[in-house]
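Raw record, unedited: DUF3106 domain-containing protein
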Amino acid sequence: MRRNAFCFAALCGLGLAAGVAAQGGAPAWTDVDPAVRGVLAPWQAGWDALPGDARSRLLDNARVWAAMGPEAQAAYRVRAEAFAALSPDERAQLRGAYADWRGLGQDERAQVAAAERSYLALPDAERAAVRAQFEALDPDARAAWRLGPETGRWFGAVRPIVAFVPPEERAPTLAMLRALPPEAREDLAVLARRLDEADRAALRRELLEAAPDARAALLRARVGR
């Protein structure tokens, strides 16, 4: 039971069930479904003092865990324990990769899934060659393609704008960049090369605060055309 609770906690920490909609509000501990109380046991003592949204998230994650079944739980347990053994930096990188995946649109997710199927269908030697080509890319290029096939095509040119974005601003910044028209991203790439780090950060904040339909004009004005 303790091991299951650990794996469930890892599930919550990784946010793998974050897409599940809240169900049934946030009941008191005495009203929690007995089927999920076991995995929620670490939170029992302070359950009723938790904010309602926190209880709802925990319940949603507990339902996901319970629905996985023994084999899926065992497979996840292996991954969770491997994740726990990583360094803090490595865990942060994996969380970032998962956040990037969640930020992809349905079309890009479909493209990534299709590419994965094609890759897995290759003979071993060809898969190794493709992997070697990818590993030969510089880290920035690999990070860009992690954002999806569409974003990966242009992200490298604007990457200096988002190089030191606080974690809580990463998702809205990427959403803002994806929503820009191609010409506006070209202007942003020019500014990314022209500005120093402080001015790039100021421009990023200015773009985030601007109305979406005003951003292209703002960039045109800053470029001077």
